[in-house]
Amino acid sequence: MVWYKNPKKGITKTLGKKQVRVPEGLYAKCKGCSAILYNKELDKNYKVCPKCGYHYQLSSLERLYLTVDSGTFEEFDEQLVPKNPLNFPEYEEKVKKGQEKTKMPEAVVTGLGKIHGQPASVAITDFQFMGGSMGSVVGEKITRAIERAIEKKIGMVIVSASGGGARMQEGIYSLMQMAKISAALGRLDEAGLPYISVLTDPTAGGVAASFGMLGDVNLAEPGAMIGFAGPRVIEQTIRQKLPKGFQRSEFLVDHGFVDAIVPRSFMKETLGKYLKFFKP
Q1: Of 40, 56, 72, at which residue does a domain stop?
Q2: What is the span of the domain harbouring residue 17?
Q3: Which CATH number goes with the domain that contains 268?
Q4: Same domain, yes or no, for 74 and 114?
Q5: Residues 10/21, Cβ–Cβ less than 8 Å
Q6: Which of 156, 106, 127, 108 is nearest to 58 (CA)?
Q7: Are 110 and 76 contacting, i.e. CB atoms less than 8 angstroms apart?
Q8: Which of 144, 224, 235, 254 is 20 to 30 A away from residue 77, measured at CA?
Q9: Of the residues 56, 73, 94, which one is the last residue of a structural domain?
Q10: Where are the alpha helices (H) located in the chain, listed in sequence order?
């Protein structure tokens, strides 16, 4: 698999009076500090800007590669694909576009593996697939992953990159997944097994309002946008200026909504330590 895809757009640099076109795919402009970064070096640094620490979004496959120990992951329920229960216009086309873009059947990948030597059931959503939104198949796959953790008596790790929240094209079928996953996590808790939630940029809507914030430990990447509604929507609704950094992970950890901020390079080790600590 190709874990990292270089951006298609090239960069124009000015040398003296000449403008030189740098070949596409070699360099990227940091979204945080505007520094010009060599893509190969960026990939080696876990797609984190070495100058300002800006964390680029990762696909599910990239996240899987960085989180789960090599050669230990076994995927489950990959045969499940979304339908169109409400006959929502153009929904099939959007799903197909997401499948072509991510090479995944749905917006989440689930399976069993080891994280820093500790066995775990893992679910990772993908923002590139319809904003990582949660439809009935996403909810079913995550619920089955939790039930698999209970069966195997191991911990559960969910990495959320779901800025799309609950998928509006499936209406109440999507909203039902919030309760279904939360109930499954309740059974996991009754079994005395840990659930670690990893919140990445962005995590919003029905995902943030359900399993995203229900972890025994809630971890977040630096600078991640986490919340139910976006800052612009809230400002327009209450007609007030929000504090600087509102809904970013640093703001949330200061106000007790997130337990810790963990840089990407330390996430795998940190997850392994928590899984070992909470081991039954």
Answers
A1: 56
A2: 1-56
A3: 3.90.226.10
A4: yes
A5: yes
A6: 127
A7: yes
A8: 224
A9: 56
A10: 39-44, 60-67, 91-102, 136-152, 171-190, 205-208, 231-238, 249-254, 264-277
As a residue count, the chain comes to 280
**Separation between Cα atoms, residue 200 and residue 131, nearest integer Å:** 13
SS3 274: helix
Pairwise CA distance, residues 168 & 4, whole Å: 30
pLDDT tens per residue across all 280 residues of the chain:
333 444 444 444 444 555 555 556 788 889 889 999 988 889 889 899 999 999 999 999 999 999 999 999 999 999 999 999 999 999 999 999 999 999 999 999 999 999 999 999 999 999 999 999 999 999 999 999 999 999 999 999 999 999 989 999 999 999 999 999 999 999 999 999 999 999 999 999 999 999 999 999 999 999 999 999 888 889 999 999 999 889 999 999 999 999 999 999 999 999 999 999 998 7
For helices 171-190 and 136-152, what crossing angle results, to 10°? 10
- Per residue, what are the HEC states of 145-205? HHHHHHHHCCEEEEEECCCCCECHHHHHHHHHHHHHHHHHHHHHHHCCCCEEEEECCCEEH
- Token look-up 């989440």 returns 108
204 and 224 in a single domain? The answer is yes
Distance, CA of 200 to CA of 246 (rounded, Å) = 15
Give this prediction's pTM.
0.89
- Cα 273 to the center of its chain, rounded Å: 20
How many domains does the chain divide into?
2
The Cα 172–Cα 174 span in angstroms is 5
Taken in order 110, 115, 121, 122, is the CA torsion positive or negative?
A: negative
